[in-house]
Amino acid sequence: MDEESKRMEEGIKSPLKEESIKVSNEKGFVTEHDKDKMANPVAVGESVKKIDEQEQPLVKQKNKRVATLDAFRGLTIVLMVLVDDAGEAYPRIDHSPWNGCTLADFVMPFFLFIVGVAIALALKRIPKIKHAVKKIILRTLKLLFWGILLQGGYSHAPDDLEYGVNMKLIRWCGILQRIALVYCVVALIETFTTKLRPTTLGSGHLSIFTAYRWQWFGGLVAFLIYMITTYTLYVPDWSFVDHFDGDEPKKYTVICGMRGHLGPACNAVGYVDRQVWGVNHLYSQPVWRRLKACTFNSPHDGPFREDAPSWCRAPFEPEGLMSSISAILSGTIGIHYGHVLIHFKGHSQRLKQWVSMGFVLLIIAIILHFTDAIPLNKQLYSISYVCFTGGAAGIVFSGLYIVIDIWGLRTPFLFLEWIGMNAMLVFVLAAQGIFAAFVNGWYYEDPRNSLVRTIF
Questions:
Q1: Cβ–Cβ under 8 Å, residues 293 and 307
Q2: Distance CA 108, CA 448 (A)
């Protein structure tokens, strides 16, 4: 008996035999070797187990979704609907006429905060940068399109059943436009710095900051642009035509000629918007009309005082260019919370990072506001306002995380999660007045006995 036969009897596979078995198996043939394995159930089981173990890494495991993310987004949508529909009846929860911060003033920064968190989770793995950039640009364009359509003046419902855009007075800015800008900037920074991301963090509480220094550098650039422009740009006198107060349009002039002014009339934020968009394309009903200088009904809406300054009738864009540049910081704070969620696996580690940063931001904002250095102001999107609302968002997010993802009390928040997962749909229903019209459409005997009218 030759050497090859001895090897076969002893069960020792020659290199030649191994190769033939591999080739035959790849082509789908059954070899003698396969028959021997089929005759031995134990060998078959071990082979299947080995194959399963080899193929297991190829199967993509679904990541556990953080329910707090959707619940927080849903809470923000609910808050928006509440203040939009009830703010007129309860001005204490409506937007602050100028300095200060009310319940309504938390909506926009909460949106931007959760956008930042979502960006960190969505872009934690980027196989192809070009593909990611393409998706970011397309999503930005979609948000801009819907923003201009919904808030540019196309729909005048439910007050007037009219549709159409007066291109002479179209509003170019709005909530979705601001979200689009912040999303685009923060997401592109996250994408282009993908090769600089650490796989593991160094020791120390601040390691998460140094690991993502380029994201914070982008926020610093936005901060410097905003602060330098706000405090150094010269604001000259300016004029506007009031198309909405009375039948005949009337021209007014606002006297300025100053720098670093943070009041309604002569701030640099409004000046930049007037130069970029044009005064006729700004928001025509700014909340400063509820100031005591403008109406005796303050903080409610009401007719203008006879001695009201001319700027009371002027347009002002609360979602303008300069304030949107400052709003990038809200997205930067949000993406930091997302990075903490990715790198820190323990609940206590995450909460330590989140809560500590939230309280630091709140303390900075309170100091800036009450020393009159930089007052809280949503219309200007001041830095103190960024810190205050960003810190509040972090604290609320941490609280929801404890209740939903740690304690497991998810059922009471399923409604918020559903709204959060269908945020765009609910936003359209609210922005177009469809939701309010639906609720107000149910009445008892008389249309005046509706739920909304009863509450008001």
A1: no
A2: 33
And the tokens for 300? 């409610």
Radius of gyration of the chain (CA): 30
Does residue 99 sit in helix, strand or coil? strand
Q: Count Cβ atoms within 10 A of the Cβ of residue 194 and give its class: 0-12 exposed, 13-18 middle, 19 or more buried.
A: middle
Sorted by sequence, the CB contacts under 8 Å of residue 85 that are 6+ apart come out as 430, 435, 436, 439, 452
Residues 6+ apart with CB under 8 A from 447: none
Q: What pLDDT score was predicted for residue 90?
A: 79
What's the distance, CA 334 to chain centroid?
A: 8
| CA separation for the pair 158, 39 (Å, rounded) | 77
Sign of the CA dihedral running 383, 386, 392, 394: negative
Strands 250-254 and 238-242: antiparallel
Identity at 214, one-letter amino acid code = W
pLDDT tens digits, 110-147: 999 999 999 999 988 888 889 999 999 999 999 999 88
pLDDT surpasses 90 at 319: yes
CA–CA gap between residue 147 and residue 173 (Å, rounded):
8
State mean pLDDT over 330-352.
Answer: 93
* Whether 315 contacts 249, CB under 8 Å: no
Which sequence spans correspond to the domains of the chain? 16-50, 67-440
pLDDT tens-digit series, residues 306-318: 999 999 999 999 9
Q: Which two tokens stand for residue 232?
A: 């150094």
Q: Distance between CA 320 and CA 381 in Å, rounded?
A: 10
Indicate yes or no: pTM above 0.70: yes
CA 30 to chain centre: 58
Contacts of 315 (CB under 8 A, 6+ apart): 240, 279, 280, 282, 283, 284, 286
Closest CA to 212 of 192, 198, 229, 191: 198
Identify the DSSP state of 95. P
pLDDT above 80 for 1: no
| Token pair in block for residue 253 | 């002039």
Q: Which of 178, 172, 65 is nearest to 122 (CA)?
A: 65
Are the C-beta atoms of residues 335 and 342 closer than 8 Å to each other?
A: no
- Average confidence (pLDDT) over 56-72: 64
